[in-house]
Amino acid sequence: MMLRSRRALLYVPGDNLHMVEKAAALGADCVCLDIEDGVAFNRKADARAAIAGALPRLDFGRSERLVRINPVGSGLELDDLNAVLPARPDGLVIPKVHSAEQLHWVSTQLSAAERTYGWPAGGIILIALIESARGVVNLKEIAGADPRLQGLIFGAEDLAGDIGAVRTQAGWEIFYARSAVVTHAAAFGLQAIDMVWMDLHDVDGLRQECQQGAQMAYSGKQVIHPNQVAPAHEAFSPSDEAIAQARRVVEAAAQQQEAGKGAFALDGRMVDMPVVKAAEWVLARARAAGKLE
């Protein structure tokens, strides 16, 4: 299956139609229309109605059209699904996931909708938000919960509140969980999407945190303002230099294999299978980002 680029996942309050219309034209990899934290309790119905109308009407271009529903167990989730599923979003973001059963329940609802409307089975994907101590502890079960699941999102702010940690810019208080999310995503063939950068004015800080996330093997970042989209796209895209080097490694490895050789030297550095696999991953990300055919 072709890797889908999710370098920036932009949250937009579902009850703000002007912001939804603006987001649809931004070209972000993912636009997530929110019914959860970004919407006041007395505006949930307005958000559902606005999203149900916007999804079929607006042209989102290449952006993946996601909806973040309220948590499973909140008492709001079924109304969310009944309102937005007929508009056929590309996927759902499920917040505050702490058990595999929550994802099973949503997947069952999606299967029923796909049968009702004659849509391809399994076509609507799931992305799970890990933002509690219990969610971190149960990552193995969550990551393997359902074939629809394509990614894990790390929610640092909610996690810090759940465990009683004080958030710092260095982020050591949430580093274990941040590492656990990306590690479990890799183990189960999922993408991992990194935490929100809360300071809307500190673009340099955003870039630095994006670069750190990319180094940790995150595929992208949650963003909360249109101005954060471009820095995230840039940080989670392989550079031209990295792409050129990856091509050299892959091409050289193919030649060496034909000659019956495994490990070999290239530009004075040893190349073995882990290095080749890393180069192939760079090229896959470049294709997903539209930087390679």
Describe the structure.
- With 293 residues, the chain is of the alpha/beta class.
- It folds into 2 domains: 228 residues, Alpha-Beta Barrel (TIM Barrel); 49 residues, no CATH class.
- The protein has 12 helices and 10 strands.
- Strand 9 and strand 10 form a beta hairpin.
- Helix 2 runs parallel beside helix 3 and helix 11 packs across helix 12.
- It is globular and about 65 Å long.
Set out the fold topology.
Layout: E1 8-13, H1 17-24, E2 30-34, H2 44-57, E3 64-68, H3 77-84, E4 91-94, H4 100-117, E5 125-130, H5 133-137, H6 139-143, E6 149-154, H7 156-163, H8 175-187, E7 191-194, H9 203-215, E8 220-223, H10 229-235, H11 240-258, E9 264-266, E10 269-271, H12 273-288
Helix pairs in contact: 2-3, 11-12
Task: Please give a handful of descriptors for the protein shown.
2 domains, TIM Barrel, 12 helices, alpha/beta, 8-stranded parallel β-barrel, 293 residues, two-stranded antiparallel sheet, single chain
